[in-house]
């Protein structure tokens, strides 16, 4: 269970039954905690800086003056958690008026414990994601090749989020590959147990080992690889390496796609889910269906999978998957995080067509397909399990 810190504010004792207000507040918080899955504890205002969530519990009327003294210690937006008693809501509305007059942002969280827990969960995810992203170093092993709208403005990204792009020559990965070796784990064991062309599987896993060593060397938390360069130089692909890294929680993108990698990082930070980076391969605007395909996906994502060759080259080792129908989210953002798309989708089926990349998903898009033909953020899009549209949209509003 995680912890959320709130600054507890209550009116002066000469105008309030402070003890009763505290008892009422604590009972309400207990209900919220049980639904939220996080402990809410009282703390000092300075502690709110570390969690990135300026949460004030307004316990009663008369707390307004205390808020004015305390709020300058942290930055907004200011989140006011309220109860249905002791003029908590009335005091919070007065505080909101103060914030508005001073050009500051705030929000009142009010309602049933269920309503409050749901909203706090979203805000906590966003605060945690911002903190995680601000410390991330993203390795770009080779610049995008053939992707004319997939590179990133490193300076703008750093200023906007704190994320740092680290350029690395693709030849360094090739040299590292020739050293050989990779860490054994449940993913490598399962891949080898498939019995698919052991020599080719070993080569593909050596790419994974090389990537792991480079991630450690450069202190990276995510990576994108211009993987088509590997076809001619070492006669294998990065498909398995990227599949394992994504399953391990290190976003890993194909084809040197920098915008794709940024999108994978944002999606992972917000959802804790690994994501499938894929091409929209064909769509039907009348049925709102799209087939997405690529030759790799997180190895922890499918219900079952098998191994085959990389689609375009016919060499190396790629992944083909089966996943049961379920809700999905399709996502992409640009490099400055000033534009994004988050679409609710339903996975209809996974497919095994021989004229597309190996892992294939047919999705029904709740909001239709117009975005993909009218204003897409380049080609590759990220797909993860679950409905995360509300969290994603709220994150971008918060920026």
Report on the structure:
The protein has 399 residues and is of the alpha/beta class. It folds into two domains: 2-134, Rossmann fold (3-Layer(aba) Sandwich), CATH 3.40.50.10940; 137-398, no CATH class. The protein has helices spanning 18-36, 48-51, 64-70, 88-101, 113-134, 154-161, 170-179, 186-193, 198-217, 228-233, 239-247, 258-271, 370-374, 389-398, and strands spanning 2-9, 38-42, 54-58, 78-81, 106-109, 137-141, 164-168, 222-225, 252-253, 276-284, 289-294, 304-308, 318-322, 327-333, 340-351, 359-365, 381-385. The strands form four sheets. Strands 10-11-16-15-14-17 form a six-stranded antiparallel beta barrel. Strands 2-1-3-4-5 form a five-stranded parallel β-sheet, with helices on both faces. Strand 14 (327-333) and strand 15 (340-351) form a beta hairpin. Helix 5 packs antiparallel against helix 12 and helix 5 (113-134) crosses helix 14 (389-398). It is elongated.
As laid out across the biggest beta sheet, the strand order is: 10-11-16-15-14-17
Structural class of the helices, strands and pairings? alpha/beta
Helix content: 25-40%
Q: How far apart are the first and last residues' alpha carbons, in Å?
A: 27 Å
Shape, principal axes of CA atoms: elongated
Q: How many structural domains? A: 2
Main sheet?
A: 6 strands, antiparallel, barrel
Q: Mean pLDDT, nearest integer?
A: 95
Catalogue the unreliable spans.
none
Number of helices: 14
**Measured on Cα atoms, how large is the radius of gyration?**
24 Å
User: Could you give the count of β-strands?
Assistant: 17
Fraction of residues in β-strands:
15-25%
């Amino acid at each position: 269970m995680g912890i959320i810190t709130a600054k507890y504010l209550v009116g002066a004792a000469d105008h309030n039954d402070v003890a009763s207000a505290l008892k009422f507040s604590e009972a309400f918080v207990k209900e919220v905690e049980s639904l939220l899955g996080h402990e809410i504890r009282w703390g000092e205002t300075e502690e709110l800086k570390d969690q990135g969530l300026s949460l004030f519990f307004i316990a009663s009327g008369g707390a307004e003056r205390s808020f004015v003294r305390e709020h300058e210690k942290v930055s907004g937006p200011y989140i006011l958690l309220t109860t249905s008693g002791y003029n908590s809501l009335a005091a919070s509305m007065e505080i909101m008026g103060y914030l508005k007059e001073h050009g500051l942002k705030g929000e009142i969280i009010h309602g049933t414990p269920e309503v409050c827990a749901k909203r706090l969960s979203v805000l906590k995810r966003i605060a945690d994601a911002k903190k995680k992203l601000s410390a991330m170093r993203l390795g770009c092993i080779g610049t995008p090749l053939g992707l004319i709208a997939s590179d990133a403005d490193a300076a703008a990204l750093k200023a906007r989020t704190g994320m740092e792009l680290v350029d690395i020559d693709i030849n360094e990965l090739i040299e590292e590959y020739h050293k050989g070796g990779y860490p054994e784990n449940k993913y490598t064991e399962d891949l080898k147990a498939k019995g698919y062309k052991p020599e080719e599987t070993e080569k593909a896993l050596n790419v994974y080992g090389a990537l792991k060593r480079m991630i450690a060397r450069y202190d990276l938390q995510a990576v994108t690889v211009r993987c088509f360069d590997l076809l001619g130089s070492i006669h294998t692909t990065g498909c398995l390496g990227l599949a394992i890294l994504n399953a391990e929680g290190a976003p890993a993108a194909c084809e040197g796609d920098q915008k794709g990698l940024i999108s994978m990082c944002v999606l992972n930070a917000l959802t804790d889910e690994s994501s499938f980076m894929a091409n929209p391969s064909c769509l039907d605007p009348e049925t709102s269906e799209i087939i997405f395909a690529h030759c790799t996906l997180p190895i922890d994502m499918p219900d079952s999978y098998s191994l085959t060759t990389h689609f375009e080259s016919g060499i190396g080792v790629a992944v083909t998957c089966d996943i049961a129908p379920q809700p999905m989210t399709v996502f992409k953002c640009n490099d400055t995080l000033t534009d994004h798309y988050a679409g609710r989708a339903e996975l209809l089926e996974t497919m095994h067509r021989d004229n597309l990349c190996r892992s294939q998903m047919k999705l029904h898009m709740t909001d239709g397909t117009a975005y993909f033909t009218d204003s897409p953020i380049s080609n590759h899009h990220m797909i993860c399990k679950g409905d995360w549209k509300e969290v994603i949209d709220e994150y971008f509003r918060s920026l």
